[in-house]
């Protein structure tokens, strides 16, 4: 119960945003995870299936390719597929590939920050926020989501009525 209260408290003090780019990347990766073992998927098919702007998706897929999450194949039977099994790719991996660090403050990673005076205790707060975000996003694989098997700790957090409301 205490970790949930801590998470809720951090959420009240810090505003987290999941960008369209990160959301689209995870949705595209989930579609590819669901198609493991099948022919590579064309970007157009992914874009249509997930209602993602095609040009935007191309950039996302390129970032994911550079990040080692997807491989592309040219030709008539070409397209994209995951570079490794979905069970080995976390949501955090996908978000990092397209956005960089999971949590930053003014574009800086929390351990690189320094505060003084009354703000000195702010740094541990940002580090704790980052630890909780990592715990959740690194603890869920593409295969978990694609199979509808979210970990128990995610279900527990999502079942808290306060998680669904905006204070």
TrEMBL record:
PROSITE patterns: HTH_RRF2_2
SUPFAM superfamilies tied to this protein: Winged helix' DNA-binding domain (SSF46785)
Stretches that traverse the bilayer: none
Entry superkingdom: Bacteria
Any one Pfam family match given in the protein's UniProt record, by short name: Rrf2
InterPro entries: Tscrpt_reg_Rrf2, WH-like_DNA-bd_sf, WH_DNA-bd_sf
Keywords carried by this UniProt record: DNA-binding
Protein name: SUF system Fe-S cluster assembly regulator
UniProt source species: Streptomyces hyderabadensis
Organism lineage: Bacteria, Bacillati, Actinomycetota, Actinomycetes, Kitasatosporales
């Amino acid at each position: 119960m205490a970790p949930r209260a801590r998470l809720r408290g951090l959420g009240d003090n810090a505003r987290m945003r999941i960008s369209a780019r990160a959301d689209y990347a995870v949705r595209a990766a989930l579609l590819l995870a669901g198609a493991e073992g099948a022919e590579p998927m064309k970007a157009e098919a992914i874009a249509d299936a997930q209602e993602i702007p095609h040009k935007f998706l191309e950039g996302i897929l390129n970032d994911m390719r550079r990040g080692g999450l997807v491989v592309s194949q040219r030709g008539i039977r070409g397209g994209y597929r995951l570079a490794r099994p979905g069970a080995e790719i976390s949501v955090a991996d996908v978000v990092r590939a397209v956005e960089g660090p999971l949590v930053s403050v003014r574009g800086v990673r929390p351990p690189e920050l320094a505060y003084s005076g009354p703000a000195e205790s702010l740094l541990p707060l940002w580090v704790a926020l980052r630890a909780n975000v990592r715990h959740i996003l690194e603890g869920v694989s593409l295969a978990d989501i694609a199979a509808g098997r979210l970990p128990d700790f995610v279900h527990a957090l999502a079942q808290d009525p306060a998680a669904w409301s905006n204070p």
